[in-house]
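[retry 2/3] ATP-binding cassette domain-containing protein: previous attempt timed out, resubmitting with same input.
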Amino acid sequence: MSIVNLKDVGYDVNISNHFTKKILKKINFIAHPGEFHAIIGPSGCGKTTLLNIIGSLLKPSTGSVELFEKDITNFSEKNIHKIRKNIGYIFQSVYIPKNMSVFEYLIFFAELSGLEPNKAIETSNSFLKEFNLQTLQYKKSDILSGGEKQLVSLLSILISDPQLILLDEPTGSVDYEHKLRIWESIKSLCKTNKTIIVVSHDKKILEYADYTHLLNYGEIFQQKK
Ligand SMILES: Nc1ncnc2c1ncn2[C@@H]1O[C@H](COP(=O)(O)OP(=O)(O)OP(=O)(O)O)[C@@H](O)[C@H]1O
Ligand SMILES: [Mg+2]
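[retry 2/3] ATP-binding cassette domain-containing protein: success.
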């Protein structure tokens, strides 16, 4: 069973009436349960665009997208939400509502995933402890650093426990020690059969990913199996 299956996916943008830029060309990409895929490539090569297509946020200009073995290429917004509840996504720029504390944010995600309030508090506490981030618990989002926001956002994904996890530069602003912990915990998710797709410039990812794909000039090349 495939979790993601892209067939000949292309993505074009109209720069002017006379010029169309081909950001992605004929991308073929397949991911199964328990696999950790890394997508690397220079700035502006289309990594975020590709992740947005996989995450059902953008429709491809050509080709087809299957998620969980359903062709969603022409799905309506109404039908797409059933698919989206199985996806966790950390965006390149993390957003946490302004007046929310870290603890409130994590509890919110725990409740969204179906936990009762007491269990949601308990789970949020244990994740903060596991990552040694208790000092952030009552901090409001507007005083968090970029790296702290990324860590909190990652915890919210771990708490939500989706089948498919998409991460766009999850360690971009994080210190070395937390980076290693992030890659370790992402890797351990594969043992629970999750599918992880990460876009990153962090070379460390090459040691953890099962498959590395290089994106360049709109085309994708698999480097390692
Ligand atoms: N709607 C759009 N209109 C015009 N150009 C776009 C549009 N969306 C993306 N692009 C261009 O497509 C290219 C790929 O963008 P994308 O954000 O996917 O790159 P990236 O590989 O994630 O880069 P980075 O590593 O810097 O995050 C860039 O040159 C960007 O400017
Ligand atoms: Mg990007």
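[retry 2/3] ATP-binding cassette domain-containing protein: The radius of gyration is 18 Å.
[retry 2/3] clearing retry counter.
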